[in-house]
Each structure stands twice: as structure tokens, then as C-alpha cells.
Design a protein that fits this description.
homodimer, 458 residues, alpha/beta, seven-stranded mixed β-sheet, four-stranded parallel β-sheet, 18 helices
Chain lengths: 458, 458
């Protein structure tokens, strides 16, 4: 009989610390800047985040203990299985051994709850009773509603109007977990009212929703409300490293050394960082691993945008972050991988790319859906549209291994299932999707935005 | 630190045989009858099912080997975790220790793939290239499409028209797995055309869909098409026993003896039988276990219907089965737990109830949704509407244990997640649902139907 398909860990083998890559990254990290162009201090973030999370955001310690209560909540679905993709290998006829870390087993269906439970916990410890956030397609909003329900906290999610109307199931998930989900722009914030006065029929945007969620947090009179972000920031990447730390133990159990190729899709960067950062530590110390961050061709942040200081949101409410950015005014085309439609990128992931530790790759959506379909019909699990980008890249690498006749070990992050995103598959099967190519004017537009940055790094 | 939340098994610990309760059940089982009122022979089922499955259907052997290839497919998600519901216990303040077997981890989201992969395998071994089936809410249709995709078989699902229109996501799941899903009644079968000619605007029914699926299988000229059923029959119950066999090993790992109370919801009976039959073997040999089958008050098959011979479908295409039945003409009210809306019941489960081995219980849907909400907000996983019936009964038992001050062990089957059924939760939260009580005329109607049975057993 063949070896096990799944490589599992017991709860006792679950990592007890997160890995903070800041302690090991080469080069100098560029700090966030305030409106005055000077590095911001922790106190400037205090109205938005609790101090214990701000401390994590700026920490340079290599290992940070995971609190007992967070471990308990994570144990609802963790440790997550690592799976050998025997059937996919067979379909491709590749000598590569393909493994995937299955993050779709969480109650919300993706890796997002890894940081949601941690953020909710730290806020609760700090005396916070309510969290606000924004959500696009709904993956992050439902993860935070889930986490808040476990801790008896209130959760208010500003969901981009067009998604709110088109994806009612995500809203229902949040409500089932006791969260409140309202369409953005709303009449509940000044930012929302301003937009509605000007554009009463706007479909909304992530930028507007962020502005509303931050405003709702900082203007709350009880002082017991804060804002929560599902990607981009350092503490979010930190919480996600449990993915890669588990995967290392599992590869060892499978009798493998380090992977030759490591792949994750990247929107804001959190699932990619979660799997890759613990392995990049080895790469920094000499290991040869091809670490690939996959993004959509239609939102080519890492492959085509400059590394510069830019805002995380359209309304410029966030500090200036040093990152790859298509410009905070850039609106990505409406591809189905909503989680990858972001103009910016985690500063840590951007830095790792700049230092040559990560190799970015951009793939068009038709190739990704084709890959998602092959995976669904061989390995049996329907991937989220975001995840299909990692699968498409994995298939490229597996075919390359076949051409080269090499027994490579490929590990990718199966960041989420696609059960809430089946409309994209239907459109693909009906031939209604096409690859969206950016025109020169799109590039010119965001380049113009970046020219106005206060202190471009590159 | 508390004990582990999840009790997991390695793939090597996965049971290698199914348990056939027919070998141990007391009393005499009543055989299926043909249209002439005489027991049917295996050859009469040959146009509908492959002979290897018919042999399983009538087998009296206690243990039946699970084929290697089926084990491989099951290992995509099995062994399934058993979970200690610490947070639910705490919320209830009960001294009971509550465990649940989490069958929602399969790619289709429920226990249904346990038998889908086995049935697809045996058909494939017998040279069959295509399976037909019917589906109501879509849970079974998507499970069979999933199984067929793994084996490269065609799958055609006749989906009840009203669900086809209202639940497009289930259809999309089937299509993503390469299956064909068409609304029933359709123009593709004589049964469908007859209904459409008479009632062009009919919403369809499970009874019509069964007739279409059976007709499509038996009239296929290649001879390589058969029909597949997702519940009720003996071989389906057999395939599901892997649930209970795993649970036994897991309870032992958790340091528990046999459970005091064992609970599952029952529509056609397959998830209930899957968990309970291996424990009922112990009960037959003297163990004291309160085994509870939970059904909706609005479809009270086990609690209020007689045990008698009846057809499995409205069109009377199936043999007469000895079972509890509300009458094959009974149309259950439109509650959201679509999987529990069936007029009949597995003959084996019905027999176990008759012999006093199983205690049926009926619960109204509001109590079930309330239970599902509490579970979602404590244990974190949103249950399917069917599964909330098992949870509601579990909560009743946990409260009873509190009143009695007893440290009971309660084990229930978490048969599926509710991510594809969130509309029911939204309606519940909006106060739009009510308990549906059957009127006397409903009873009179099905009693009349049962009077016409050829050979009532009770």
C-alpha cells in the first residue's frame, strides 16, 4: 500500500510560538511614515489598535509565544493536514512530489481565522469589547465574526456594497456567528455619508470600507472599540506563520527534507507569508528553495509595480507603508479572486522580494480556473479562486520537473475552499470568463499616483 | 492544560472492514417484496444496480472488507475527527462530556461521500461508466458527482426543479466535479415528459426525480449505466458504519468507555446508522446505551408512522420495503432540513426501532435552529439544518444530565456543515420561521395510503 495521503499532527505537536521574520530579514526595513513623512510612533496607532498588538507589529523578537487561549481556539481546526497530491501527480505524470497544506479546514473555510482568533484575543485582553473591520468578498469579515463569537465580542463588518448585494451567503455567515454586516458606503459614518452624498449609486470599494471601519472604531465613545485588519500588517503575517511551522514538522514526518519549490498566492500577502516565512528563515541561512508568490496578471503588484511608500487605502487614512504598490488609486479589474484584488502588498513580503528571497509570478485567470478544475477532479477539493493561482503555478513547476526529469518536492498553500465562490467556476465552464489584460493607460495612471509619494524608497 | 479538543486517528488506524448489522439484529428481517407481493430475487434488481452491490445489499456477513481503492479515496478526508465540545458544555453548565464525530470535513461537506465513493467504485469494477441519481437539496447529488470525478465516471443528477432554481450553488458544485445536473421533471425521460404534459409548471418532487433517474439508468442502451441511491438501502447503511467504527477507537483514545447516550438525526437513516450500528452491536450484547434517532416533528416517520410495507418513491418504481412510512404519497412540509423530508426510513433502522434498540425522538425546527446557533457561536462550526436536530437532542440530554447531576458521555453525529444552507439561518434570525404542525388530515391521508399496502407487517 502507498504511504499516507495526509500527514497529520496531534494537538500536542502544534507549534507553541509564532515566527517573526523581522528578526532575520537582511537589509533595512523601512518604517511606516506619518502624514509628515516621519516614522510614526506606537502611540499614533493606539486609537486604532490595542497596544499589545501594536507591540507585536513593531517587535523584532524572533519567537513570540502563542497564548494558551489562542491555542485552544486554533485547536478547533488545527493542526491543519498536509496532504500528498498523489492523484494530481498521476494526472500530470510528473516525477515531482506535490504536497499541499490544507487551510480550508477552518470553520470559515480559509487561513483567515488563524489571525482572527489571535487579534480578537489580544483585543479582548486589552479590554476591548467590539471590533470593526471591512471585507470585500467576505472571507475576512466572516473569519473575524467567527473569532468574535468564540470570545463573546461584538463584531461589525463594513462589506463593499457590490459584494454585499451579490454574495448574500457571506453576510449570512457573519450573522450566524452573531456579527453585524452592513453595506458600505453606509450612513453610519461621515466617510460613508460623504461618499453617498456625492455618488448615491456607488458600488463601494475596499478603500471606502476601510475608511468607514477605521472611523467607526476611533469615534466610538466607549473607548472599547478597535479596528482589525486581515492582511498586510506585520502582526498578521506573524500569526499566519503557524501554517509554515506546522508544514515543516509535517514534511519531516513525510520523510522529506526542505521543499525545492514553495508556492503561495499573494493578495495582501498573509497566506503566502504564513507558509513561506518559516522556510525563508532556512533560505536566509543558505537553503536552496525557490519561493514563489503568485498574483493575478490583472493585479500585478509584485511583478510590475514599484517598491515605494504608499497608503494602504484610497482615503489615505493608513500610514504610508513601504511596499510594492500599484497606487492607492488603482482599482483592480473585477476578477473572481477577490482576495487578490489589492493595490498594495505586505511590507515584509515586498521586502523579501526586494532582497531576492521570493520570486513573484503573475498568471492569468483562465489558466488558474483550468488548474482549479483539474485539482477538483483529481484531489477532490474545490479550491477558492485565490487558491487556484497557487495551483496553476504548482502545475507549471510539476510540468517543468517532468521536462527536467527531476524528483522535486513542491509544497503549496491550499489557502481556502471555493464552496462560497462557485459562480466563478460556472462562468468559466460556460466560457464567460476571459483573461483581463491591463492597458498602458492603467499603468500610466498608477505610476502617476506613485510619483506623488512623499519619499519613494526605490 | 486541558486535554485535546480533537481526537484524531492516523490513516493506518482507519477501519479496514465495514460492519453489517444484519448479522446481529434480533428478530426476523422482512425482505423486500416485488409487485406480486413475493420476495424479490437479486436478478430483479440487476437492471438498476450492479451485481456486486446487490450482493452487499443482501449479505448476512458481519464484516465486509473495504477495498484498497475505496480506502484511498476515503483518505482524502478520513479518518474524520472526533471532537470534545468543551465550549458547548461550558455554555450549558453540564456535567456531561459531549463528543461529536465531525463528518462535515469531506469535500462535499457531509457524510454522503462515504457511500458515494464506495458505490462509484463497485459500479466501476462491474464495468459501469455512468451513474444516475436524484437529489433534493443537492447534498447527495454533489457527493456522487465528487465520487464519480475521482474515478473518471459520468454522473447525471436529476435535481428537484424547485431546489434546482433556488439552490444554484449545489448545481455548480456538481458541474465543477464534472457532473451533469438537470432540473426534474425533464424532457429526457418518459416519466418526466408525462408529468410535464400534465403539469407544465410543477415544482417537481423527489418521487418524480427518482423515477427519472431509474428510468435513465435502465433504458440506457450501452448497458453501462446504473442508478445510485444515497440512503435507505442496506448497502448504504453498511458503507456509513465507518463513522461509528472510527468513533469507537476514538472514544477509547479519549479514555472513555462506551457512550451513555448516542444521537443522530434521521431522514433516510444513513448518518444515524453510520454512527450507531457499531454501538448497537454492543447494545445487543448487553451494553446500556440510549440510542436516539432524531427527526423533525413535521415529518415524524419513526415517532408516528406505522411500520409497514411501502414503496420508496411516489411513482412506485422501487420494491416494497418493510419500514416506518408516512405513505409514499405524503409530501412533507417545506422545512429547511431538506435531507430529513422523506416519507420512509431505512428498513434496518426501522427494524432496530421496532426491536427497542433505538429510541426515536421528534423535535420542531425552531428548537433545532436555536441549538444550531448556540453550537455555531460556541464550537464555531455552522451545522447543516439536518444536523441541528442531533444538536437539539444533545442539548436536551446535556440539560437532563445537569438536572440529574450525572457525568454522562454523549456522542452525536455532526453529519454536515451548513455553509450551503445559510438561508434557513437568516430566516430564523429574522423571525420568519415557525414550527410546522401536522394537521389531522395529514395523518388521515397517509394512513389511507398505508391501508392499501399488500402485506402490512404490523
Amino acid at each position: 500500500m502507498r504511504k499516507n495521503k495526509k500527514i497529520i499532527l496531534s494537538e500536542k505537536e502544534m507549534p507553541k510560538q509564532w515566527y517573526n521574520i523581522v528578526a532575520d530579514l537582511p537589509g533595512t526595513l523601512n518604517p511606516p511614515l506619518g502624514p509628515d513623512g516621519k516614522p510614526i510612533g506606537p502611540e499614533m496607532l493606539a486609537p486604532v489598535f490595542p497596544m499589545n498588538l501594536i507591540e507585536q507589529e513593531v517587535s523584532t523578537e524572533r519567537w513570540i509565544d502563542i497564548p494558551e487561549k489562542v491555542m485552544e481556539m486554533l485547536s478547533i481546526w488545527r493542526p491543519a493536514p498536509m496532504v500528498r497530491a498523489y492523484a494530481l501527480e498521476e494526472a500530470l505524470g510528473t516525477p515531482a512530489r506535490i504536497y499541499y497544506k490544507n487551510e480550508s479546514v477552518s470553520p470559515a473555510g480559509s487561513h483567515k481565522p488563524n489571525t482572527a482568533v489571535a487579534q480578537a484575543y489580544y483585543n479582548r485582553e486589552f479590554g476591548i469589547r467590539k471590533l470593526t473591520t471591512e471585507t470585500g468578498a467576505g472571507q475576512w469579515g466572516s473569519a473575524l465574526a467567527f473569532a468574535c463569537s468564540l470570545l463573546g465580542m461584538e463584531c461589525k463588518v463594513f462589506m463593499v456594497r457590490v459584494s454585499f448585494d451579490q454574495k448574500p451567503f457571506r453576510k449570512m455567515m457573519m450573522q450566524t456567528w452573531g456579527g453585524t454586516c452592513i453595506a458600505s458606503p453606509s450612513n453610519e459614518t461621515q466617510a460613508g455619508r460623504d461618499v453617498l452624498a456625492k455618488y448615491p449609486d456607488t458600488p463601494g470599494s475596499l478603500g471606502i470600507a476601510i475608511s468607514e471601519a477605521v472611523e467607526a472604531a476611533v469615534t466610538d465613545e466607549t473607548g472599547q472599540t478597535r479596528y482589525s485588519l486581515g492582511s498586510v500588517l506585520n502582526h498578521v503575517m506573524l500569526h499566519q506563520t503557524i501554517i509554515g511551522l506546522e508544514a515543516k514538522k509535517q514534511l519531516e514526518k513525510a520523510g522529506e527534507k526542505l521543499p525545492d519549490v514553495l508556492i503561495g498566492c499573494a493578495g495582501g500577502g498573509s497566506n503566502f507569508a504564513g507558509l513561506s516565512f518559516p522556510f525563508i528563515q532556512d533560505k536566509i541561512h543558505g537553503a536552496e528553495i525557490d519561493v514563489i508568490a503568485v498574483e493575478p496578471k490583472s493585479c500585478p503588484t509584485l511583478t510590475q509595480a514599484p517598491f515605494a511608500y504608499d497608503h494602504g487605502d484610497i482615503a489615505k487614512m493608513t500610514p504610508l507603508l513601504a511596499m510594492n504598490s500599484l497606487g492607492h488609486g488603482f482599482i483592480p479589474p473585477p476578477i473572481h479572486a477577490g482576495g487578490l484584488r489589492y493595490h498594495g502588498m505586505s511590507p515584509l513580503v515586498s521586502h523579501a522580494v526586494k532582497e531576492g528571497l521570493v520570486r513573484p509570478e503573475a498568471i492569468h485567470q483562465l489558466e488558474c480556473y483550468e488548474a482549479g478544475l483539474l485539482f477538483s477532479r483529481t484531489e477532490g477539493i474545490i479550491p477558492a479562486p485565490e487558491t487556484t493561482h497557487a495551483i496553476a503555478s504548482t502545475i507549471r513547476q510539476a510540468k517543468l520537473a517532468k521536462e527536467e526529469g527531476k524528483e522535486k518536492v513542491i509544497l503549496f498553500n491550499f489557502s481556502g475552499h471555493g464552496l462560497m465562490d462557485l459562480v466563478g467556476y460556472e462562468k468559466f465552464l460556460n466560457g464567460e470568463l476571459k483573461d483581463i489584460k491591463l492597458a498602458t493607460k492603467d499603468f500610466e495612471q498608477f505610476t502617476a499616483v506613485l510619483k506623488n509619494h512623499p519619499s519613494p524608497v526605490v
